[in-house]
Automatic annotation (TrEMBL):
GO biological process: transmembrane transport
Coiled coil: none
Listed name of the protein: ABC transporter permease
Broad class of where this protein is predominantly found: membrane
Alphabetical keyword list: Cell membrane, Membrane, Transmembrane, Transmembrane helix, Transport
Segments crossing the lipid bilayer: 7-24, 63-82, 94-116, 122-141, 185-207, 219-239
UniProt-annotated location(s): Cell membrane
Membrane protein topology class: Multi-pass membrane protein
Keyword RNA-binding appears in the UniProt entry: no
Keyword Cell cycle attached: no
Entry-linked InterPro entries: MetI-like, MetI-like_sf
Pfam families, sorted: BPD_transp_1
Protein family: Belongs to the binding-protein-dependent transport system permease family.
Length: 257
């Protein structure tokens, strides 16, 4: 696909939606739905400056730390559990139990155990974002080709070498699928964790705007969250293309044939 066509696909629908929004809100006096130009001005005046440093950057920092530990722990534990049959059978009921618990309900418990601080907010992100990576990694290890696994064993490839050169490349596509899900879950939990007993952050600020009936400012905060999500998606696609270049190349060859 040509670069011009990529740009057209990327910006085409957002431009159409903004134009439709502008047409539907033209002449409207609805206090709860700001016009596009008003929202753009509010977005600039509200978030470009001191509030960006005080609220957006700390939120991004907590999100980055939470996702780093969630992805890292998910991969390591997933490889360990998936590679050890007795451990997988032992932990599978426990993993299903904890996965079924919605992370937001853990916020009061984590506040009691850890306290109201950044560590609590990071723990909330980890508690929810770890599961897609962990479970996808376990399932990926379980689905590794048994013939290739026996070949590795026959050639004496065991231990860390087997994980590095055989298991990890085989499960990387499923790991990346789990990471994609973890990014959106982490962003949601970042906001939720900041709505409880917090004095800064995007979640806290959006709630304060809502309580003070600062409707354009509230909408601008939601737009900031959407832009962060878009940025995470772009970064993920960039990283995935380089980590899985062999996988995408194989798919293209298979498709062409």
């Amino acid at each position: 696909m040509s670069p011009l066509k990529r740009i057209a696909y990327f910006f085409g629908l957002p431009i159409l939606l903004i134009a439709l929004w502008y047409a539907l809100s033209f002449g409207s006096t609805n206090f709860f739905v700001p016009k596009p130009i008003e929202l753009a001005q509010t977005l600039w005046t509200t978030w470009i400056g001191e509030r960006f440093v005080d609220d957006v950057l700390p939120s991004l920092g907590r999100l980055a730390v939470g996702l780093f530990f969630a992805i890292g722990l998910g991969i390591v534990l997933g490889l360990l559990i998936g590679s050890t049959r007795w451990l997988r059978n032992l932990l599978e009921p426990l993993l299903e139990f904890f996965r079924a618990i919605p992370p937001p309900v853990l916020v009061p418990l984590l506040m009691l155990l850890i306290g109201v601080n950044d560590s609590m907010k990071v723990a909330v992100i980890i508690s929810g974002a770890i599961w897609p990576v962990l479970l996808n990694t376990v399932e990926g290890v379980r689905a590794v080709d048994s013939v290739l696994s026996d070949s590795c064993r026959s050639y004496g490839i065991r231990g860390f070498a087997r994980i590095r050169y055989f298991v990890l490349p085989a499960v990387t596509p499923q790991i990346m699928a789990g990471v994609r899900q973890s990014l959106s879950i982490g962003l949601i939990l970042m906001v939720i964790s900041e709505m409880f007993a917090s004095s800064s952050g995007l979640g806290f600020t959006i709630v304060q705007f809502q309580r003070n009936f600062a409707i354009p400012e509230m909408w601008s905060g939601i737009v900031v969250l959407g832009l962060i999500g878009l940025g995470l998606a772009i970064i993920f696609q960039f990283v995935e293309r380089r980590v899985l270049h062999w996988y995408h190349g194989l798919k293209e060859i298979t498709h062409d044939s």
